[in-house]
Write a structure and sequence with these properties.
2 helices; about 100 residues; single chain; Conserved Hypothetical Protein Mth637, Chain: A; alpha+beta; globular
């Protein structure tokens, strides 16, 4: 699983963001490289990044402070660190990788 990496007490996920989507959602994997996530926010002045963190926080029921964009602030391909992931989150990601 090149898109998901465990590092100590956190995980790092490679994400491909699709801005200006009609609906928010986790759209599945792009091969073994990235998790595809659709968001409604436009890619303007960091709005998409803030919206992405807010969306993931709600979707996975974790604190926004536990989500950090490590790289890709200005592009669609991003690396995201999630600190202290819950068992439910890890199970959902594991399920995605087995499909």
């Amino acid at each position: 699983m090149d898109w998901l990496e465990k590092k100590g007490n956190s995980i790092i996920i490679n994400v491909r963001v699709v801005p200006r989507a009609t609906k928010d959602g986790v759209a599945g994997l792009l091969g073994t490289e990235a998790l595809k996530i659709r968001i409604q926010a436009p890619p303007v002045e960091g709005k998409a990044n803030a919206y992405l963190v807010k969306y993931l926080s709600k979707h996975w029921k974790i604190s926004r402070s536990d989500i950090e964009i490590l790289s890709g602030e200005t592009g669609r391909n991003k690396r995201i660190r999630i600190s202290n992931p819950s068992a439910a989150l890890l199970e959902e990601l594991k399920t995605l990788s087995s499909n």
